[in-house]
Amino acid sequence: MADAKEQIEEELIDITSEESYEEPEEQDASEEMEMLRAERDDMRDRFMRALADVENMRKRSDRDRREAENYGGSKLARDILPVFDNLKRAVDAMTPEQREANKALFEGVELTMRELLNVFGKHGITLVAPEVGDAFDPQVHQAMFEAPLPGTKAGDIIQVMTEGFMLHDRLLRPAQVGVSSTPAS
């Protein structure tokens, strides 16, 4: 039994000696190095993606802020447009005799309408006022009816019911017009 005990001790010494463990330690070190490189690359990739996400979020929030500044009041502006329409109808409905008889009232309504247009202008709202004879543009006009009218071409505006409005570069309300449908001869 003593011999067996000595033999086991010798084997343990052999197993724990540096010579017998040099190769596995080198393998373990290179494997560990590869794992660390893979982890580093993974972390770099995650960092770059997080950086890109933050940059995209910054750009998106910047764009959203600009749009909110420019177009945030569009609902209010749309609700105020009938006020302009009514003032314009009041001015257009007055005959020259009524204008002369009620000069102060007429000037007050006209000044109010001009001031409303000035306020619109300060906030980026511009008038789209087509004239009879202009070409119909579906981007800024809404055709309310189509009728043949001698002396016009198909697609010409023959009547303007209400003006339209743009809010910066977006259509707030199209101009409502009548369009000629005169067939080509």
In brief, what are we looking at here?
With 185 residues, the protein is an alpha+beta fold. Helices cover 62% and strands 17% of the residues.
Could you explain the architecture of this structure?
With 185 residues, the chain is of the alpha+beta class. The model has no long low-confidence stretch (mean pLDDT 87). The radius of gyration is 41 Å and the shape is rod-shaped. Strands 1-4-5 form a three-stranded antiparallel β-sheet. Strands 2-6-3 form a three-stranded mixed β-sheet, with no helix packed on it. The longest helix has 54 residues, at 18-71. It is 62% helix and 17% strand. It has five helices and six strands; from the N terminus they run αααααββββββ. β4 (164-167) and β5 form a beta hairpin. The relative contact order is 0.09. It has two domains: 2-70; 72-180, Nucleotide Exchange Factor Grpe, Chain A, domain 2 (Roll), CATH 2.30.22.10.
